[in-house]
TrEMBL record, chain A:
Gene3D superfamilies, alphabetized: P-loop containing nucleotide triphosphate hydrolases (3.40.50.300)
Domain of life of the native organism: Bacteria
Name of the featured protein: ABC transporter ATP-binding protein
Keywords (A to Z) from UniProt: ATP-binding, Nucleotide-binding, Transport
CDD domains in alphabetical order: ABC_MJ0796_LolCDE_FtsE
Subcellular location: Cell inner membrane
Organism, scientific name: Marinobacter santoriniensis NKSG1
Family assignment from sequence similarity: Belongs to the ABC transporter superfamily. Macrolide exporter (TC 3.A.1.122) family.
Automatic annotation (TrEMBL), chain B:
Pfam families associated with the record: FtsX, MacB_PCD
Name of the protein described by the UniProt record: Lysophospholipase L1 biosynthesis ABC transporterpermease
Subcellular location: Cell membrane
Keywords from the UniProt entry: Cell membrane, Membrane, Transmembrane, Transmembrane helix
Transmembrane stretches, start-end: 21-40, 256-275, 308-330, 350-370, 393-412, 418-444, 702-725, 746-768, 788-807
Record membrane topology: Multi-pass membrane protein
Source organism of the structure: Marinobacter santoriniensis NKSG1
GO cellular component, one term: plasma membrane
Length: 241, 828
């Protein structure tokens, strides 16, 4: 077994280590710099909120942290593996075993039922009895009665709860959430974020959450600000020392 | 709506993938159906003009032992724009070089031949010249054998009755000579205007008047219809189709074209149906939005109807824009193949089925799901709601079946064909429903699993709705394409068997018994051993069970075989291509009995044991019928209605021998040596006719291959359309699977496996349904017999599995090439 998927990785190494990260995309005439010189460390079990205005580069950063894309410059080390240098397949393997996602727009497969959507990552990871585990999770998020409904038959909050169940299905080491309440009203958003935080605590997952919701951000141990592709941490000195 | 806005909306439509698929399906539908119909109609023309030379005209009116037809009939033909010509045929004695000889005279008018040409020589063994008309008045052209028999040379005089005519050329080949072996007496061709002066034709003479007609197919048809009620029993209105040799091939080729066209119609309809249904689904949200904006249900229906109409116009124009150049290219290929320019013939009627296909499939298949859009609740904008679609689906299904039936009927007008095809389709859908249902139920038990196989099977279960309908369309497409492939193969095999590479192309007739061995030696020395050498006795069938035969079968039935002498033979063994259908072939040492050709026996109403009496010269022979046998009249070998056992009824009667053999073109000069050595033997050259038939078969083959190609291309498009119907869902799924950590290779393998299983399964069911349809078609239309076609049963499902899994792979392409991040952004 190689090091990057080693579950017994040294507890002292941070879960995420980012150095000199920049991201640029080519436009028709020139190139657009979305992220510029980002440095960041996130420890195991920590919960971190990344706050910023729309268009500031939050989703891009999250995608790079999760290895969904490769940066133009810099390195990303996730759970001891240099994911910015891994092949796409190795990163996929890593995602399957260590990473969970919650998206702003839920990203459930419309053709599949709630149950099947939750079973998907379990099947990919080759788990036994994906059916049983998926049912348990859906019950845990309060959708035990809606197993066979398709996303179109569920409300936004319900869809996001399915997505949360899916994200925790494989007991990920780190969970990335991109504005999980962004498409929901206040009260529903509150309920969904409660659920997210609760599951996070239960499983001891490292949480990296992007949001523009100050309340939600405040529930995380650390808050980072991003503006025009540059990251800053107001209380950085205190938390490092 | 202003024109600019309309244009804008079509252009906006075009940007939607589903609309592009509908439009592409429509264009392909129109293009395939129109091309096939145009080409079929063109081919029919060239075929008929190729084949017409066998009659020297497009149609013949034969009058046997009757009077000439009234002039008013010919005037009627002229008034319909037809060209006409005349021939008079009779036998008579001619005098030349101090000898008498019985000859068969053909007196022709100036117009002869209306189709085809003649070959003559101006001296014996001289070069052959091709001419387009018969001899002028005062001259005769005679068969080379007659020249030798009478010891004449070109320029000498031949007396026909009271007329002295100059022998100006030797007649080597006439277009309508055929290979009827009745022309035993040597041929003399003269001008029709000289006939009266010869004084040979008296009332009561056996004379055949033949009238030739040529012109436009429509005019011929309408003249034929006008003529029908006026015909007398001694009249026979003939087209090439009625001829023995070609009729079967031509009819089968025509049916194949019909079948191909019908399949094109079906496939096109399926493609339009699939694509438009997909479009309707994708429009639901838009419609819901329009409703919340205040558009009424009828308003929405109008909006989409207008859109359909515009698509129809675009589809038809686009389809024709493909069909016409394609047709032009094909007609050019036909010309190349035939080594002569082919007159382009755009049959406007041929375009009609294409238009009907477009309009009907648009309104029968595309409209219903789109019409249902007006029932989409506005609430859908906020929340998707299950709609009560079941009952409506049934109605749509019925409309679709009726429309398909109507279209194929419109196209083919053959109930058998329609029933066989639709029956096959229904069987297929039933089988798919049952087996597919069972398969899905089986798959339901499979749960999870990381490996590609399990993921693929789970995928099949997950997408069961889409999988089943894709399977149905693949199955249908495969069935239709396989049906055509099988029918094509059997047709081509048949033709190949009928006219093999070295089919006999020369007949030797009138071989005296004592010359038999010398003739055989002559050809053996030159490398052409004679294989089928048969004795031949000419005799008339006069009595059936002691009753004059015309009374026995009823005088109202005009059976040609009773009006002329038949070729009788004896043989010990049954020829390879004959088959006994009833009774027994002669046992060794049997000397009694006669074997009768089955169709003639049928027409005469014969039973085994009936006693037939033949008159041969002054003798009579009576024998019981001991068997009926089928004969391959188009085999280019000597064939006989009546066969006796050796030493049987024909024993002791005057016989000559007849044979046919293959002589390669470069050895034709051997014939000169032969005729010098055996001056009394007639050589019948049919190499020209065989070349023509092979020519025709080549044309038909090209047509068949082309149509098969087009159908296969259309089938591919239909399958691609069906696969692409789920493209967006698949891509979203692929992107998400990658995000969730699926490896690319796993994704590829499981997708290909999933589609492979689907394609293989559809292939199996499709091939079985094709076997059923082919059985029905062969049985009813192509007169074949059923057998399993292993050549398709195994490879077609495999090919289908491979092809469909490649389609799946192709669909996945964009999912693999970009980062999951970008995919998610795009899909948002
Ligand atoms: N692939 C891309 N091509 C072009 N522009 C991009 C691409 N990805 C992101 N952007 C742009 O980069 C900026 C940051 O995007 P994003 O990370 O989604 O912001 P946020 O999530 O903070 O709203 C936006 O202006 C977005 O339009
Ligand atoms: Mg974002």
């Amino acid at each position: 077994m190689n090091q990057m998927t080693n579950p017994n990785a040294d507890h002292c190494t941070p879960m995420l280590r980012v150095a000199g990260l920049s991201h640029r995309v080519p436009l028709e005439t020139d190139t657009l710099t979305i992220l510029q010189g980002v440095n960041l460390e996130i420890n195991r079990g920590e919960s971190v909120a990344i706050v910023g205005r729309s268009g500031s580069g939050k989703t891009t950063l999250l995608g790079l942290l999760a290895g969904l894309d490769t940066p133009s410059e810099g390195t990303v080390e996730l759970d001891g593996a240099m994911i910015s240098q891994l092949s796409e397949d190795k990163r996929a393997e890593l995602r399957a075993s260590r990473v969970g996602f919650v998206f702003q727009s839920f990203q459930l497969l419309p053709a599949l039922s709630a149950l099947e959507n939750v079973m998907l990552p379990l099947e990919l990871a080759g788990m036994d009895n994906p059916d049983k585990r998926a049912r348990e999770l859906l019950e845990r998020v309060g959708l035990g009665e809606r197993l066979n409904h398709t996303p179109r038959q569920l409300s936004g909050g319900e869809q996001q709860r399915v997505a949360i169940a899916r994200a925790f299905a494989c007991e990920p080491a780190v969970l990335f959430a991109d504005e999980p309440t962004g498409n929901l009203d206040n009260r529903t958003g509150q309920a969904v974020s409660d659920l997210l935080m609760a599951l996070n605590r239960e499983q001891g997952t490292t949480l990296v959450m992007v949001t523009h919701d100050e309340h939600l951000a405040a529930r995380c141990a650390r808050q980072l600000h991003i503006e025009a592709g540059q990251l800053s941490e107001p209380t950085a000195e205190e938390s490092v020392s | 709506m202003a024109a600019s806005q309309k244009l804008h909306s079509v252009r906006r439509d075009w940007r939607e993938r589903d609309v592009r698929v509908v439009l592409a399906a429509l264009m392909i539908a129109v293009a395939t159906v129109a091309t096939i119909a145009l080409f079929a109609s063109q081919l029919q023309r060239t075929l008929v003009s190729s084949a017409s030379t066998f009659l020297a005209a497009d149609r013949q009116l034969d009058v046997e032992n009757g009077r000439p037809i009234p002039d008013s009939w010919l005037e009627e033909a002229h008034s319909r724009g037809l060209r006409t010509g005349q021939m008079v045929e009779f036998s008579t004695m001619v005098f030349g070089g101090d000898q008498f000889q019985l000859v068969s005279v053909k007196a022709v008018s100036d117009e002869y031949p209306l189709r085809g040409d003649l070959e003559i020589q101006t001296r014996e063994a001289g070069p052959r010249e091709t001419v387009r008309s018969g001899p002028p008045p005062g001259e005769v052209w005679i068969n080379p054998r007659l020249l030798r028999l009478l010891g004449l040379t070109p320029g000498d005089t031949l007396e026909v009755g009271n007329e002295k005519l100059t022998v100006s050329a030797l007649l080597v080949r006439e277009p309508d000579g055929g290979f009827s072996m009745s022309a035993l007496a040597p041929r003399v061709m003269m001008h029709k205007d000289d006939v009266a002066a010869t004084g040979v034709i008296q009332t009561g003479s056996r004379v055949e008047y033949v009238y030739l007609f040529a012109g436009d197919t429509d005019a011929l048809e309408s003249f034929g219809a006008w003529l029908k009620p006026r015909l007398e029993p001694s009249h026979e209105w003939r087209s090439v189709r009625d001829g023995e040799t070609l009729s079967r091939s031509l009819q089968r080729a025509e049916r194949f074209l019909l079948l191909g066209g019908s399949l094109a119609v079906l496939l096109a309809a399926v493609a339009v149906a699939v694509a438009s249904r997909q479009y309707a689904m994708s429009q639901r949200d838009t419609v819901a939005l329009l409703k919340t904006l205040g558009l009424s249900g009828p308003g929405i229906a109008r909006l989409y109807l207008r859109r359909l109409a515009i698509w129809g116009i675009v589809g038809i124009i686009g389809g024709l824009a493909i069909a016409l150049p394609l047709f032009w290219v094909l007609a050019g290929m036909l010309g190349n193949l035939l080594d002569r320019p082919v007159e382009l013939y755009f049959d406007p009627n041929a375009v009609f089925p294409a238009l009907a296909t477009a309009v009907v499939s648009l309104f029968a298949f595309a409209y219903p799901p789109i019409r249902r859009l007006r029932d989409v609740p506005a609430m859908r904008v906020l929340r998707s709601q299950p709609t009560g679609e079941r009952r409506e689906l049934w109605r749509d299904g019925l409309i679709a079946v009726a429309a398909i039936f109507g279209l194929v009927w419109l196209y083919a007008r053959e109930l058998d064909l329609v029933v066989a095809l639709l029956g096959g389709l229904v069987l297929l859908l039933l089988a798919l429903g049952l087996v597919g249902g069972a398969l899905i139920a089986g798959l339901r038990r499979i749960r999870g699993g990381g490996n590609a196989w399990r993921l693929a099977l789970v995928g099949l279960y997950r997408h069961r709705g889409a999988s089943l309908s894709q399977m149905a369309v693949f199955g249908m497409t495969i069935m239709l394409a396989t049906t055509l492939l099988l029918v094509r193969t059997s047709l081509l095999d048949d033709w190949q068997a009928q006219l093999p590479e070295k089919a006999p192309n020369h007949f030797l007739i009138n071989i005296a018994p004592d010359a038999k061995n010398d003739v055989a030696d002559f050809w053996r020395e030159r490398g052409h051993p004679l294989e089928n050498l048969y004795p031949m006795v000419r005799g008339r069938l006069t009595e059936l069970n002691g009753v004059p035969v015309k009374e026995a079968v009823g005088s109202d039935r005009n059976i040609g075989a009773l009006n002329r002498e038949l070729n009788l033979t004896w043989m010990a063994t049954l020829p390879d291509d004959n088959k006994i259908v009833k009774g027994q072939w002669f046992a060794p040492d049997t000397v009694s009995g006669v074997s009768v050709e089955a169709r003639l026996a049928d027409r005469l109403g014969l039973k085994l044991g009936d006693r037939l009496t033949f008159t041969v010269g002054s003798e009579t022979v009576t024998e019981p019928v001991t068997s009926f046998r089928t004969v391959q009249w188009d085999s280019m070998k000597p064939n006989f209605y009546m066969a006796f056992p050796p030493g049987g009824g024909l024993e002791g009667l005057p016989a000559t021998w007849i044979t046919s053999f293959y002589l390669p073109p470069d050895q034709k000069t051997e014939l000169n040596t032969f005729t010098r050595q055996f001056p009394t033997i007639s050589v019948l050259e049919i190499d020209h006719i065989i070349a023509r038939i092979q020519d025709i078969i080549r044309q038909v083959t090209l047509a068949i291959e082309t149509i098969l190609g087009m159908i296969l291309a259309a089938a591919l498009v239909v399958m691609a359309a069906v696969v692409s119907a789920t493209l967006r869902d698949r891509q979203r799924e692929g992107a998400l699977l990658r995000t969730l950590g699926g490896r690319q290779s796993l994704l590829v393998r499981s997708t290909m496996l999933e589609f492979g299983v689907l394609g293989g399964f559809a292939g199996i069911v499709g091939v079985l349904a094709a076997e059923a349809a082919v059985y029905a078609l062969q049985y009813r239309m192509f007169e074949g017999s059923f057998s399993w076609h292993w050549s398709v049963i195994v490879p077609v499902p495999l090919a289908s599995a491979l092809l469909v899994s490649l389609f799946g792979r192709w669909q996945l392409g964009p999912v693999l090439s970009v980062s999951p991040m970008l995919l998610l952004r795009r899909l948002e």
